[in-house]
Amino acid sequence: MWNYIRQSIARKRARRITRKYDTVIDHFEIEGIGRIDFANWTNPLVEKKVISRSQVDFFAKFLKPGDLAVDIGGNVGHMTIAMSLAAGREGRVVSFDPNPFVYDILVKNAGLNPGLTRIDTFPYAIADHEGEFYYNSSEASFNNGGISEDTNSRHGRFALDHKIKGIKLESLLEEKYPEELGRLRLIKIDTEGYDKEIIRSIRPILQKHKPTVITEVFKKNDASARAEQFELLSSCGYTMYYFSDFVADAEVIRIENKDQMMQWKHFDMYAICN
């Protein structure tokens, strides 16, 4: 009872008071790989992350050792690490997150398993044009959030005290990884409802390199936004599939048309180039 009350008070404070929370290092034994260290965020609003063999096997459907992958909205890095374990030490994952409250943890996690992962991190938002953006969250502890070009943001009333940098993905990849772009096999996007805009901005990459795209269909997106997200990928020659979770045995359903995008309130899907 007292533990529940303490947790409830801590969650209320995290919603109202801006502060940085520490991390704790957890260890996960992954069959066939070994021990993975992971820095879990102690923010009381955030569910503790787990790294599992099933997550690695999920990403291994799209990645093989030596491949290049991109994680847009890497958060604290739990999916980034699973992607990197699938791509192997000879591959590379490039992970982005503009939220400074999670980016520091992403950087820490990127460096915890150097013999098993190869991860580069950047504190940028991916956008359809370069510039500076406001970053807002619905929680004072910034466990979620998104970018906007003005202070009237749908992401919440809590704002960073500085703007964050937005870049075009294509420009960075061509500058930093020109010799690896031919091995680009996966782009994962999870940006709290901004996925559609990112997909539009990376269409040249999709048309040229044809990576698998994993994207979130945000619960607040209406039918029009969902239809546009579907059509952006479809026009690049992609077929989309709903999946129930980032695990190897996830339920998978082909999305036949834009109307089907309303079948689930909030979901993830992957898109494969035909």
Write up what this structure looks like:
Helix 2 (53-60) packs across helix 3 (78-87). The protein has 8 helices and 15 strands. It is globular, with a radius of gyration of 18 Å. The protein has 274 residues and is of the alpha/beta class. 28% of the residues lie in helices and 28% in strands. The strands form 3 sheets. An 8-stranded mixed sheet has the order 5-4-3-11-12-15-13-14, sandwiched between helices. Strands 6, 7, 8, 9 and 10 form a 5-stranded mixed sheet that branches. Strand 1 (23-30) and strand 2 form a beta hairpin. The protein has one domain (2-273): Rossmann fold (3-Layer(aba) Sandwich).
Question: What descriptive keywords fit this protein?
Answer:
28% helix; Rossmann fold; 274 residues; eight-stranded mixed sheet; five-stranded mixed sheet; 8 helices
